[in-house]
UniProtKB/TrEMBL annotation:
C2H2-type domain ranges (all copies): 100-126
Gene3D superfamilies with a match to the protein in the record: SET domain
Alphabetized Pfam families for the sequence: PRDM2_PR
Protein name, per record: PRD15 protein
InterPro entries assigned: SET_dom, SET_dom_sf, Zinc_finger, Znf_C2H2_type
Organism: Pitta sordida
Recorded GO MF terms: zinc ion binding
One GO CC term, this protein: nucleus
């Protein structure tokens, strides 16, 4: 279930429900940063998704809230802890990470897409 704000209230989207679903029924919550392919944020009452890395065809879409959006939604900005009965993900080769720095507040991001979605909060404050 995804949580969104509208008209001052919190609402939950039951995305797996095929009877009332759309493309969102194919989006799942990411359990960790390695499997995350999308970041969600809200702007002017609408929810937007941005990719955080290239997505190959037939790849499951996995999303988590942008840091500021998670704080605003009172959701955890960290990922869901994997349960012990869940098969662990295969190790991912760690490549050197360039950091992207926000020129407005100095926050750093692992990808340009995360920086770009973060900068939307500064546009709202202008």
């Amino acid at each position: 279930l995804f949580q969104v704000l509208k008209d001052g209230g919190k609402y939950f989207l039951d995305t797996p429900n095929e009877d009332c679903g759309n493309w969102m029924m194919f989006v799942r919550l990411a359990r960790n940063q390695e499997e995350q392919t999308l970041v969600a944020y809200q702007h002017c009452g609408e929810v937007y998704f941005t990719t955080v890395k290239p997505i190959e065809p037939h790849t499951e879409l996995k999303v988590w809230y942008a840091a500021d959006y998670a704080k605003f939604m009172e959701a955890s900005a960290v990922f869901i802890k994997e349960e012990s009965d869940v098969c662990p993900l295969p190790p991912v080769a760690k490549e050197p990470v360039d950091t992207w720095i926000c020129s407005n507040c100095g926050s750093t991001f692992a990808t340009f897409a995360l920086l770009e979605s973060h900068q939307c909060i500064h546009k709202d404050r202008v």
